[in-house]
Specification:
356 residues, alpha/beta, Isopropylmalate Dehydrogenase, two-stranded antiparallel sheet, 11 helices, 39% helix, globular
Length: 356
């Protein structure tokens, strides 16, 4: 049966990248059927809500979702895809290919993936006035004072659960094993700040150490997150799969994208036990809206991750090779990569290489 994929274009310039990328995927002739649930501004105008029940039902009925990027009403759908569908592992590949601009003197061979825990840590959105903490009777071991005595301020709740850490770390080891079978080292690097946060980040490290024993065929090491941030820049070639708590993963995955062409090339996939969605990592690029020059590479490579998830690994590799060929040619690059091609012209070039 043909795969059913929900498409949510998002806001600003993101729909332009999505629209052109769908043409490329259609050129692979995989028989994927696109569904377009009504989400965002139009849904709000028509139904009085940016995420009506019909849109939720459409997502549930599909095999996966391709999401553009959001900075507005479409976020309601994104929250459902993330927390509602429990997509706990955010995978952010970083790979350099010839012709892609990089600040590194020798970017050749950089090829790793960050696996970010996607649901916990500081992203519980539990914040409030310090005075709210008074009933807990807390005393800071550094200041010796109660939080509410520090003055007017706010707190944010950071939570790491053993179950949440275990499932994302185990996912990272399984990914490392899969990458090893494809020629990568097969190594997991864990990062956290356990020296300063022994109960939360310390738990994340403890779970990682335990799970590593279940994968004796996969290499394993761990670094304090500040040390790892340094290594990400100074020795990116040493990395294969990096697993991180939510906030660190959010930050360092964007930093990693800067090594290999920037966010315009940064793909992303979010995986749960029985669902996954795929989105470019670059945001909505409001400054590019309507200009037709947003780089579609991140959307194309995210779609490639989706094709593999849907059981089309050969097509995913074919798409990646076609994108690589466009960059290697030095032609048809969008302005962010030093060219003058439009979004559509870039995708036309990819389609020609698929056909060739």
């Amino acid at each position: 049966m043909a795969s059913q994929v929900a498409v949510i274009p998002g806001e600003d310039a993101a729909p332009e990248a999505v629209r052109e990328s769908l043409r490329v995927i259609d050129a692979l002739r995989l028989g994927i059927e696109w569904q377009f649930p009504e989400v965002g501004v139009e849904a709000e105008r028509k139904f009085g809500t940016a995420f009506p029940e019909a849109a939720k039902a459409a997502i549930d009925a599909c095999d996966a979702t391709l999401f553009g990027a959001t900075s507005g009403p479409s976020a309601r759908a994104l929250f459902y895809l993330r927390w509602g569908k429990q997509t706990f592992a955010n995978v952010r590949p970083t790979r350099w290919s010839p012709g892609v601009q990089s600040p590194l003197a020798q970017p050749e061979g950089v090829d790793f993936a960050i696996v970010r825990e996607n649901l916990e840590d500081l992203y519980l959105f539990l914040e409030g006035p310090l005075a709210d903490l008074a009933p807990l009777g807390l005393t800071s071991p550094t200041t010796g004072r109660a939080p509410e005595d520090l003055g007017d301020g706010r707190y944010a709740l950071k939570a790491v659960t053993e179950a949440g850490a275990e499932r994302v770390i185990r996912f990272a080891f399984q990914l490392a094993r899969k990458r090893r079978d494809a020629g990568s080292p097969g190594h997991v690097t864990l990062g956290a700040k356990w020296n300063m946060l022994p109960r939360t980040d310390g738990l994340f490290r403890k779970v990682g150490d335990r799970i590593a024993q279940d994968f004796p065929d996969v290499g394993y090491d761990r670094y304090l997150i500040d040390d790892l941030a340094h290594r990400l820049v100074s020795h990116p070639h040493d990395l294969d799969v990096v697993v991180l708590p939510n906030l660190y993963g959010d930050i360092l995955s964007d930093a990693a994208a800067g090594l290999c062409g920037g966010l315009g090339l940064a793909a992303s996939g979010c995986f749960g036990e029985d669902y996954a969605y795929f989105e470019s990592a670059h945001g909505t690029a409001p400054d590019l809206a309507g200009k037709g020059i947003i780089n579609p590479t991140a959307t194309l490579l995210s779609a490639g991750m989706m094709l593999e998830y849907l059981g089309h690994p050969d097509a995913a590799r074919q798409l990646a090779r076609a994108v690589d060929a466009v960059y290697a040619s030095g032609k048809d690059r969008t302005p962010d990569q030093g060219g003058s091609a439009t979004t559509g012209e870039f995708c036309d070039a990819v389609i020609r290489r698929l056909a060739g």
